[in-house]
Amino acid sequence: METIVNTKPVITDWVKREYLTNVERILDSGRLILGEYTRKFEESVRQYSDSKYAVAISSATAAIEIILKHLDVEGKEVIMPSNTFISPVYAVKNAKGRVVLCDINLEDFNMDLTSLKNAVTPSTKVVLITYIAGRIPDNIFEIKAFCDENDLYLIEDASHAFGATVNGYKAGAIGYAGVFSMYPTKIVTSATGGVITSDDIDLIKYCELSRHHGNENGAVNQVLSGDLLLSEFNALLGYLQVQEAFGMIQVRQEIFSFYQEHLKEVFGEHGLYFQVSSDNATSSFYKIIVMCKSKEQCETFKKHLNACHISTGHCYGTPLHLQPTLLEEYPQASLPNADRFRESHFTLPCHLDLSDGDLKYIVAKCKQAVEHGG
Asked: For this structure, is 186 an active site residue?
């Protein structure tokens, strides 16, 4: 049988039709950057995230770098969880800041508040939180309050969390600034690209300058920067995807509900559990994480599913403190939860191409894996 993939970008038929219809309009306009669809894309993300402003950019990495340069983190510390992607490290280093790592918790797998507090020094300026797998932590407002009390800027890396909410607040509208990735596998994609959200007009003006060589009116250079633009073709795709976001997220939530209904009890009996959810929060379920009681159980489970042509994935398979490029900087990092998460988790398939039959098959094979000692 054909392997059931873990994740894949799915473009709906409506988006395909609208995209092909409007591509010709872009070509006829002669405006291939910073045109009608860039504005529409930015406005759609702004509205969806309940933010005051939004700026489209070439990537989420570039977005983080621009924000950090605006905040002037040179010589300052930026705290982030070790369980995140490598690109924020690149952004911090380009902004001449220093990365400080903290641990995660083992309930929702987001930043651990106690570890964050222990990591703060007089040199700390920014806290960069990653919303893992589309889940905003319930204690995000405690984290924000701690940042406010200590004059720290809270930046939301909401790359996984487009459309996620907590207590009625949306991802990207809680901290000083939010960043969304529009990479092909994300909830909403523009093929490549990112979006910055914020209520700070000074940051937004800086971002708008920085994405186009720092030139004002095409001539007067205000900020030394590069070409960080999103094309009109990418912006068009992103704009159309945002129109479909509610329905796409709803499908992902239904997939998780199906897994939870049929597997939560049997998982619990054998020490496995899903990422902890909450009545106060809605996840966008970029990924569906299963935590095992041991590395051995995790490997056995994955091996069984893979043998049944079910692809398993991970949510950052190697934490930052164990990345080969960073080992010298963090030779003795003590981040036990990040280490345990690395060894003992996997993700179940979650995308719009999964059929009811696929889901029933996955559930059956998960139960079978448990029976076989998984």
From this structure: yes
The structure tokens listed for 331 are: 């030779």
CATH topology of domain 13-241: Aspartate Aminotransferase; domain 2 (3.40.640)
CA-CA distance, 104 to 223, in Å (whole number)? 36
Q: Is residue 200 helix, strand or coil?
A: coil
pTM of the model: 0.95
> What's the confidence (pLDDT) of residue 221?
80
- 373, pLDDT greater than 80: no
What is the distance between the alpha carbons of residues 157 and 160, in angstroms, rounded to a whole number? 8
Looking at 144, 170, 186, 365, which residue is catalytic?
186
Q: Is 231 helix (H, G, I), strand (E, B) or coil?
A: strand
Superfamily assignment of 245-371 in CATH? Aspartate Aminotransferase, domain 1 (3.90.1150.10)
Contact 224, 212 (CB under 8 A): no
Q: Strand 53-57: give its sheet, edge to edge.
A: 53-57, 194-198, 177-181, 153-157, 124-130, 77-81, 98-102
